[in-house]
Amino acid sequence: MVLASHYRWFVEIGKRPPRWPLPDLNKPPVGSTAAGNEWARSEGFARRFLKSTTLPRQINFEDGLWVNALTQSRTALLANEAKYILICRLIYDRPAQSRSDGGVRATGDSQFALPYGCGTIVQYYALGYQQYLYRFGAAHQEMAALVISQRTHASGNEQAYFRHQPLTVEEYLNSPTVADPLKLLDCDMAVEACASFVMTTTERARDARGNPAYVAASVRSPELGTRWAGVHYAMADHAEAGATLAARLWSEAKLGPRDVDTAQLYDGFSPIVYYWMEALGLCGNGEAHAFIQNGRMALGGELPLNTAGGHLSEGRLHGTGHLAEAVRQVSGRAGARQVPDCQVAVSTEGLPGYRGGAILLTSSP
């Protein structure tokens, strides 16, 4: 299977549209190269947060994960239920609304967190990250290498939110603390955006005008059942589920961590990159904080990471931006950010231990 084409755009920065910025899905994607004139024969449509269109069939994203959309689309193509499938992900950041939790009784797991002021997702991530720092003797200052590297990559991405705002170590370390030890610049940037991909079979992609990205493997993180408490993101869960996911991913693709030329790893909060690097075996357990130092993650480094800027600097698209960049890299369309001779890219979304997924893309079948 191949991801034959993609396109994406952002609403003008600083302006919020009065309605969802829905594209006209009955017209060919802007910049489409692989689908070409075959667009009129598209027969499948995987979607998330989109209103109905006149396309013949729609497949919902399950749990909002693109890995589920890819899996369903792959099944439909193999069953000859469709020839070309459009996978589309739209993010519309609704205007903030005031909310009061006054008078709400804490029940279930929340009774052990809410009374102590722990009730937001950034606090949950901060708890897991504190555990990581303590367990492996890491320092939060080391995270500056990752955040600044991604900001530098964003400068070469005309669609990145922070493309014109370079960042220094001092600016990062002096940014406000949101939930200790996480700072404001450890959190992703909310944007209005859309990314789309056309998926088809390898045989049909041979007629494509552009270079496609070939899907070598796609895997979702396993469910941990009753172990998931919902109060914090435990390191044990990332390690256990991540090991299972990685074993399936590498086995299905018949590749290994050393074959990866670039990694596009989900970074809703910066520590998630550590968890994915270690889960996938891109570095040893507890070594990510040291591995990212000394330019290893930069373009031209040992393992170029989040070369479009990631969610921290390009903007949050729930992992779909990472997938789009992985497609660009293996198809040789990343422009100034292109990793030389990029043959294998890994992209992830979510967490290794909860609602996560990973995909391996290659430049050839």
Brief write-up:
The protein has 365 residues and is α/β, with parallel strands linked by helices. The protein has 10 helices and 11 strands.
Radius of gyration (Å):
20 Å
Reported for the largest beta sheet, the result is: 9 strands, mixed
CATH architecture: 3-Layer(aba) Sandwich
Shape: globular
Percent in strands: 15-25%
Number of strands: 11
Q: How are helices and strands ordered from N to C?
A: EEEHEHHHEEEHEHEHHHHEE
Distinct helical segment count: 10
Uncertain parts? 4-15, 28-45, 47-55, 97-102
Q: What is the CATH class name?
A: Alpha Beta
Fraction of residues in H or I helices: 25-40%
Q: If you consult CATH, what is the topology?
A: Peroxisomal Thiolase, Chain A, domain 1
**CATH homologous superfamily placement:** Thiolase/Chalcone synthase
Arithmetic mean pLDDT:
81
Rounded to the nearest angstrom, the distance between the terminal CA atoms is: 9 Å
Structural class assignment: alpha/beta
Tally of separate domains: 1
Major beta sheet, strand line-up: 3-2-4-7-1-8-11-10-9
Describe the structure.
Strands 3-2-4-7-1-8-11-10-9 form a nine-stranded mixed β-sheet. The chain has a two-stranded antiparallel ribbon with strand order 5-6. The chain has one domain (2-93, 189-362): Peroxisomal Thiolase, Chain A, domain 1, CATH 3.40.47. A hairpin with a 2-residue loop joins strand 10 (344-351) and strand 11. It is an alpha/beta fold. It has helices at residues 66-78, 121-136, 144-154, 169-173, 202-205, 235-253, 271-279, 288-291, 310-313, 320-330, and strands at 2-10, 44-47, 59-60, 85-91, 177-179, 182-183, 193-200, 213-220, 262-264, 344-351, 354-362. The model is unreliable at 4-15, 28-45, 47-55 and 97-102 (pLDDT under 50). Helices cover 26% and strands 17% of the residues.
